[in-house]
Amino acid sequence: MKSVAASLAAVLLGLALAGCGGDGAEPGAPQRATLVLDFTPNAVHSGIYAALRQGYYRDAGVDLTVQAPSASTDAPKLLAAGRTDFAILDIHDLGIARERGLAVVGVAAIVQRPLASVIARADGPVRRPRDLEGRRVGVTGLPSDDAVVDSEVAADGGDPGKVDRITIGFNAVADLAADKVDAATGFWNAEAVALERRGVPVRTFRVDDYSAPRNPELVLVTSPELLNDDPDLVHSVVKATAKGYWSTVNAPQLGLHDLLAENPGLDRAEQAAQLAVLMDLPPGGTERISPGNAFVPPARLDRSVLEHWAAWDLEHGILERPLDVEQAFAFGIGGAG
CA-CA distance, 83 to 234, in Å (whole number)? Predict the structure, then answer.
């Protein structure tokens, strides 16, 4: 996924100007709140911008300011410091943050399946995950990448120890396009789409097709303090966000329009391609709700699914000790349970 453009200093300045949690608001005015994204705005955030543009947050009594971070690791620190009210986190980052003593609580799912995958050139030798044995596989250096490679190769009957892993940072698109690696870890809704738009044929192996649980990839989180002190605000933001994603599911072109209207610097064709993949739309973009739609059901957290995810993260070394799912997530908010 693309590196983010906003600096942490700019985020902190914006948050200071916007304020958090409605401080100083006039009686009867919408309650001010802030949300820090995980990455630069893109199609995966379309439901959030739909809720903004269509007034769902405002109707719920919330004046929401959305910010982009300098890195995904900034959001837990901002939450812990009380400098933002909500954030979008990769679910693995949520677990790692709690393991490091940063109190964050997941309150809603943004997508309902992992976005992680191994991407190989379709004109190359890798036709299935076990073919990665003896091949050059680019990884970012994050522990979750090794977990994805290990899980896929082992599930396909191969030996993960025989994979030649090369740390390439976040250069999967460039390195695969230049044929520097045989495969690389990346997101099937981002890097795989970018390669296809460059004319590079790819085979994409999604991690939940190879033994990993079908858990949410991105989660809306808040602090335990806000959840305890102002549960109405948390409920309002979760419900408005879910409504925004339902709107996008039912009218993808409107969701795309709302995303681009709030972020005019984005490439329309690229975001349309990403949204089509996320929603599993057929060629031509016919509007329908597919069983493969990653947004459905919006916001819902499933306790059993999250327990399997936490066990998988522990088994593959992303987490060092068992995660208390009941403490890490707030069930019963957005149709969650």
Answer: 16
Name every residue whose Cβ is closer than 8 Å to that of residue 250 and which is 6 or more positions away in sequence. Answer: 287, 289
What is the per-residue pLDDT across 99-155, written as a single tens digit (0 to 9) for each? 999 989 999 999 999 999 999 999 999 999 999 999 999 999 999 999 999 999 999
Question: What tokens does 137 get?
Answer: 């596989």
Q: Is the residue at 335 inside a domain?
A: no
What is the pLDDT, as a whole number, of residue 111?
A: 97
224 and 204 share a domain?
Answer: no
| Whether residue 39 is found in the same domain as residue 104 | yes
What Cα–Cα distance (Å) separates residue 324 from each residue in 94, 99, 195?
12, 10, 38
185 occurs within a structural domain:
yes
- Helix 91-99 to helix 303-315 angle (10° resolution) is 70
In this prediction the pTM is 0.89
**Coil/strand/helix, residue 185:** strand
Q: Please indicate, yes or no, whether residues 265 and 307 belong to a single structural domain of this protein.
A: yes
Question: What tokens does 117 get?
Answer: 């995958």
Looking at the DSSP bridge assignments, the partners of residue 185 are: 118
